[in-house]
From TrEMBL:
The entry's keywords: Hydrolase, Metal-binding, Zinc
Pfam families: AstE_AspA_cat (PF24827)
Record has rRNA processing as a keyword: no
InterPro entries per the UniProt record, alphabetical: AstE_AspA_cat, Peptidase_M14
Protein name, as recorded: Peptidase
Every Peptidase M14 domain range: 30-306
SUPFAM superfamilies: Zn-dependent exopeptidases (SSF53187)
Cofactor: Zn(2+)
Organism placement in taxonomy: Bacteria, Pseudomonadati, Pseudomonadota, Gammaproteobacteria, Lysobacterales
Family indicated by similarity: Belongs to the peptidase M14 family.
Length: 309
């Protein structure tokens, strides 16, 4: 058994102080462009949708407008559907899956739903291919009142006026090899706890809300994605990332208790997708297509199950 080396920042067993966070931040490097990859795509959609700036992040000398894509034909009596991506900026297919859905499929739902797409919730992290924001905070553990993560607080403000009306919310994520090589070790170091190695699932899976489980909804999404990419099997303990499998490719978390993105509304149907781009059986394009398939299946099921189709 290989004993993992201590994380290179901080003292094992001691939570990070401001000094360690500053050291970590100084090591972060910009690898890609939010303007080029995301904002330019959103700008090209202005003739078809309403584009709104729902917040603005100011980090040192850098400013990031937070943008959402909304249905142009907005009516209060229509069901509200929310699609989010890039809550973890390094999870690339979540961002590009949300944008691809907007480009190729969202117009088919015009006049049938009130659609809101926030494709890149964490643009600073997107550019640095990281999980955290510059304060070493995980936005997807920060969706709660008085959130310390501005990415999370801004999205909560966006949906505040209609949070009770949202029918479906799908949040697009990835699970990558870097979860075990970098992000979970960094989390353990930041919090001053021991890092316990885990197993990265090989394939697509979903996270349902244990406080509001919707098994038929989850299974409909799994069935659609299975036509595009493989579904993650259980590990030797019958689990995925430490949680029992409740159905093939499906686990459950208490969304609001953990401060997860899909807990920000009172939606009946919620799910978090997880694709695995590092699998030898998948590729980045396949992962984007899987995210799009998941969004379409989620909307279609919610419409049909509530008699709106």
């Amino acid at each position: 058994m290989t004993i993992p080396a201590p994380y290179p920042i901080g003292t094992p067993g001691v939570p990070w102080s401001a000094d360690e966070i500053a050291t970590w931040l100084a090591k972060q490097t910009r690898h890609r462009s939010y303007q080029q990859d995301v904002l330019s795509v959103i700008d090209a959609l202005r003739s078809r949708y309403d584009i709104v700036e729902y917040g603005r992040l100011n980090y040192a000398s850098e400013t990031y407008p937070l943008m959402a894509i909304k249905s142009r034909e907005w009516r209060d009596e229509l069901p509200y559907m929310l699609v989010t991506g890039g809550v973890h900026g390094y999870e690339t297919s979540g961002v590009h899956g949300a944008l691809r859905f907007a480009e190729q499929h969202a117009s088919a739902y015009e006049g049938r739903i009130n659609l809101i797409i926030a494709p890149c919730v964490s643009p600073w992290a997107y550019e640095r291919i990281h999980r955290w924001n510059p304060h070493a905070l995980d936005p997807n553990r920060s969706f709660r009142e008085n959130s310390p993560a501005e990415e999370s607080a801004a999205l909560m403000r966006l949906v505040a006026d209609f949070r009770d009306s949202v029918l479906m919310h799908i949040d697009l994520h990835e699970t990558t090899d870097s979860d075990e090589s970098e992000f979970r070790p960094a989390l353990a170091a930041r919090d001053g706890v021991a890092y316990e190695p885990g197993e990265v699932p090989d394939g697509f899976y979903l996270v349902d809300d244990s406080e509001n489980p919707q098994p038929a909804f989850q299974q409909a999404v799994i069935a659609a994605v299975a036509k595009v990419t493989h579904i993650a099997p259980a590990d030797r303990n019958g689990q995925i990332i430490g949680s029992p499998i409740v159905a093939p490719g499906i686990i459950e978390y208490p969304m609001r208790k953990l401060g997860l993105c899909v807990g920000i509304t009172l939606a009946r149907y919620t799910t978090t997708t997880e694709v695995y781009p590092d699998s030898p059986r998948a590729n980045p394009e396949q992962c984007v297509v899987a995210q799009v398939a998941a969004v379409c299946a989620a909307i279609d099921f919610a419409l049909a199950d509530t008699g709106h189709s």
